[in-house]
Write a structure and sequence with these properties.
The complex is a heterodimer.
Chain A (H helix, E strand, L loop, with lengths): L3 H21 L3 H26 L3 H31 L13
Helix pairs in contact in A: 1-2, 2-3
Chain B lengths: L16 H16 L5 H28 L5 E11 L2 E9 L1 H31 L5 H21 L3 H19 L14 H31 L4 H10 L3 H18 L8 H4 L5 H10 L4 H8 L1 H4 L3 H23 L4 H21 L3 H43 L2 H9 L14 H4 L1 H15 L5 H15 L7 H24 L6 H5 L5 H16 L20 H10 L9 H23 L10 H6 L3 H8 L4 H77 L6 H21 L1
Antiparallel strand pairs in B: 1-2
Helix pairs in contact in B: 1-2, 1-4, 2-3, 2-4, 3-4, 3-10, 3-15, 3-22, 4-5, 5-6, 5-10, 6-8, 8-11, 8-13, 10-14, 10-15, 11-14, 13-14, 13-20, 13-26, 14-15, 14-19, 14-20, 15-16, 15-18, 15-19, 15-22, 15-23, 18-20, 18-22, 19-20, 19-24, 20-24
The chains are: A mainly alpha, B mainly alpha.
């Protein structure tokens, strides 16, 4: 059986890739995908601990996270479409009107 | 209510009704009088006073049935503080019943007379509504006078004393918006004010006497005070009390030096002059001295001062009366003079003579005043008939004349003359009063005045000078009354108004007739033994025996032919002189008083009499002017210049301004405001700095979140 450390390591790597993607990319769609990557890194950590601890709680959380992610994508994609229609771009650095 | 044992017999329980009947009368007139006719108002008021007279008679009757023992009727608790126990108690003794009878008896007659008098007076003055007010005041006066004479303590007496003073003030200023000639003016109101202030000076003395009494004897109830005083006589304290009381007496009974208000009090309607300022209220001072007889008899010095003040007043006022032209002013000075007789009598300890003269004087002076009122109204009627007569002609001349006659003085004797033809009833009534006042046998005044003179003669050793002063005053009395009779009723009419004068209606003359009967036969109250006549002893010295029950043993003196003869001769001589001067050659229209010429080089004496010895002017210069100056100084210099201009404007205003500026500039603007400004500035700056963090780039926010998470996790991991 693969030790749980590997799963956690993979999960961490996936999370870092996601986080970096959110920070460095300017395309809103790519940022979205990076966010999905971070969510799934968390899912992976949940299921890994779930199987180690012989508890179903982690797996149930994963279902919730997937549901939330799906809902978030729906809303997020709608926003992106709306932004694209007004600005003809989905570059987040150009969406900076709300500032101090 | 509980009664003392003696009160259970007889009618003593009725004593409080002495006060209640007049009060009920005044309440009825006050509440319902507006809708009642004048006759009804007058009837209610007269009945109220008449019922008080009935009660007085019943009390006197009960008293004689119980052999004159003093009865006190407790009526209401008043002041109970510690040892001080003052109740409203009615004192029925022989002295107070005499006063009650005089007050309510003469009062009732004057009430009836006033119905007729005021009926016309309110019409001449053109204010019919005041008819009711007059009777309300009159009943209030009777009630207050009853409280005065029936009080059982000095304080209760003082309540009545002040009450009658108030009524006097209200009634002197009854026509407060007129002067005595019926012109619009504040003169009458000022006369009332003068009376009130002069009385206030006297009342102050009386109050001091009351305070001293309470301080020394610990009680104000008559019997207790007299008992304590005779048990431990302290001449200094008792002299102080009696002399303070004398100040009150000089105020209320119009003696030197406070008499000045009484002549001015003639501004009141004539029934008021008769009732308050001749017959009753002004005798309150005499009553007070008699009531305090146990105190006065202990200190001869104070008694002598009282007697001298009375005698000096008698002469002084009689001399002024000789030089007066106003019919009521003559009577006013005559009243002061006669009050002087009474005060002199009671000062010498001749209490019976004083009270006797008080009673007879009430009869004949009320008669004289009311007759004078009848004369004045008769003149007014003549004046109006005359003016009306002129108006009928309707030409300019008559109109002008009518206008001039607006200031016609119906009371000036120089405007009268020969009125016995126009007003015969009044003439005969006036004659009765005059002869009584002049002291002609057998009129009432003869008996009472001679008793005073006899006492003065007998006590000349202890009270030197009194007899001579009073004798000269008696001579002058007969003289000025003779002068008045000749001027008013004889000679020729000096004005057209006098030719048109009309007699008064019966409602006025009938009470006068009753008074005239009393003035003629009033002497029967206290007849002395007549040398050469055998009189049954039960008619002799009735008043003396009656008052004995209250005043202790009184020796009834027989008539002294010497004293009576001298005074009668003096009176007849005076009347003869007055005939020589005023009767033989009647005064012509516009002629000066012939007496002035007769004085020759001493004409200034007459000028002095005419001008009341310039006492008012003297008081003006000595008291009123300096007082006004002081008041002006206080108001202008102290109040306005110092207090307002300097203290308020300079000190207070400037000080407050300085304080306000100090608080506003350095404190408020310098500290508080700058702190607030600094706070605002800092908030603004910090918000500007923090605002830069929100740059609108979503990825920088994400980085912040990441760094924050990393920092917190790092902290949690490595703490």
């Amino acid at each position: 059986m693969v030790p749980v450390t590997y799963y956690i390591g993979l999960s961490a790597i996936l999370f870092i890739i996601g986080a970096l993607g959110v920070l460095v990319r300017r395309n809103a769609l790519v940022i979205f995908m990076s966010v999905e990557l971070m969510l799934n890194a968390a899912n992976l950590a949940f299921v890994a601990f779930s199987s180690v601890n012989n508890s179903l709680d982690g797996q149930i959380f994963v279902f919730f996270i997937m549901t939330v992610a799906a809902a978030e994508v729906a809303v997020g994609l709608a926003l992106i479409v709306a932004i694209f229609r007004t600005k003809n771009s989905i570059d987040v650095d150009q969406i900076n009107l709300l500032k101090g | 209510m509980n009664f003392s044992e003696a009160a259970n017999t007889g009618y003593f329980f009725l004593a409080p009704w002495l006060v209640f009947f007049p009060v009920i009368g005044l309440l009825i007139n006050m509440i319902f009088g507006g809708k009642m006719s004048e006759k009804a108002v007058g009837t209610v008021a007269s009945l109220a006073s008449g019922m008080a007279f009935v009660v007085s008679v019943l009390l006197a009757y009960s008293l004689s049935a119980t052999h004159g023992h003093t009865v006190t009727v407790p009526f209401a608790e008043w002041i109970h503080i510690g040892d001080l126990q003052l109740d409203w108690t009615f004192r029925v003794d022989t002295l107070s019943t005499v006063m009650m009878l005089v007050v309510s008896g003469v009062g009732t007659l004057i009430h009836i007379y006033a119905i007729g008098y005021m009926h016309e007076d309110v019409r001449f003055k053109d204010d019919v509504k005041r008819f009711r007010r007059f009777f309300v005041f009159l009943n209030l006066f009777i009630a207050m006078m009853m409280i005065l004479v029936s009080g059982d303590s000095y304080l209760m007496l003082f309540v009545g004393w002040e009450g009658v003073g108030l009524c006097s003030f209200l009634l002197i200023g009854f026509w407060y918006d007129f002067d005595t000639l019926g012109r619009k003016s504040t003169a009458n109101a000022e006369a009332g004010k003068k009376a009130f202030i002069a009385n206030r000076v006297g009342d102050f003395g009386f109050l001091l006497a009351i305070f001293t009494t309470f301080w020394h004897f610990g009680s104000l109830q008559f019997d207790k005070v007299f008992e304590a005083a005779s048990a431990h006589p302290d001449p200094v304290v008792i002299s102080a009390i009696t002399l303070f009381m004398l100040i009150g007496v000089t105020g209320k009974s119009a003696q030197v030096p406070l008499y000045v208000w009484l002549p001015d009090a003639m501004a009141g309607p004539t029934p008021v002059s008769a009732l308050i300022h001749a017959a009753t209220m002004v005798t309150a001072g005499v009553y007070l001295v008699v009531r305090s007889a146990p105190l006065y008899s202990l200190v001869h010095g104070a008694s002598y001062i009282v007697a001298m003040i009375g005698a000096v007043t008698a002469l002084f006022a009689a001399a002024i009366a000789v030089g007066q032209y106003d019919i009521k002013k003559v009577l006013a000075y005559s009243t002061i003079s006669q009050l002087g007789f009474m005060v002199a009598a009671v000062g010498m300890g001749a209490y019976v003579a004083g009270i006797f003269h008080l009673a007879t004087h009430a009869f004949f002076k009320a008669l004289l005043f009311l007759s004078a009122g009848s004369i004045i109204l008769g003149m007014e009627r003549g004046h109006h008939a005359h003016a009306h007569h002129d108006e009928d002609h309707g030409d300019d001349h008559a109109h002008v004349e009518h206008h001039e006659e607006e200031v016609f003085d119906p009371g000036d004797m120089r405007n009268m003359g020969n009125l016995r033809k126009r007003m015969p009833i009044t003439f005969w009534l006036y004659m009765a009063g005059t002869l009584a006042l002049a002291g002609i046998f057998p009129f009432a005044g003869f008996w009472s005045k001679d008793e005073i003179l006899l006492d003065a003669k007998l006590h000349a050793e202890h009270f030197p000078g009194v007899y001579w002063l009073l004798s000269i005053a008696a001579f002058l009395t007969a003289f000025y009354m003779g002068r008045q009779i000749w001027m008013v009723f004889f000679g020729k009419e000096r004005t057209e108004v006098a030719e048109h004068a009309e007699e008064s209606p019966p409602v006025m003359t009938v009470p006068l007739m009753v008074l005239a009967v009393l003035a003629v036969f009033g002497g029967a109250l206290n007849i002395p033994e007549l040398p050469g006549f055998e009189l049954p002893s039960n008619i002799l010295h009735n008043l003396g025996h009656w008052l004995e029950h209250t005043l202790g043993h009184v020796e009834g003196l027989p008539l002294d032919i010497g004293v009576a003869g001298i005074s009668t001769v003096l009176a007849l001589l005076a009347i003869f002189f007055s005939w020589l001067i005023y009767g033989r050659n009647p005064l012509k229209e516009g002629q000066d008083d012939p007496l002035r010429k007769m004085f020759g080089p001493l004409a200034f004496l007459f000028t002095g009499m005419e001008n009341k010895w310039f006492v008012d002017e003297g008081y003006g210069a000595v008291i009123i002017k300096p007082f006004e100056k002081l008041a002006k100084f206080l108001s202008i210099t102290v109040d306005w210049n110092f207090w307002h201009d300097w203290f308020h404007d300079s000190v207070l205003y400037a000080g407050f301004k300085w304080l306000a500026e100090f608080l506003s500039e350095p404190i408020d603007m310098g500290i508080i405001n700058r702190f607030a400004d600094w706070l605002a500035e800092m908030t603004k700056r910090s918000s500007e700095g923090l605002g830069r963090l929100q740059n609108g780039f979503v990825r920088s926010y994400a980085l912040s979140v990441l760094l924050g998470v990393v920092a917190i996790l790092g902290y949690l991991l490595f703490k």
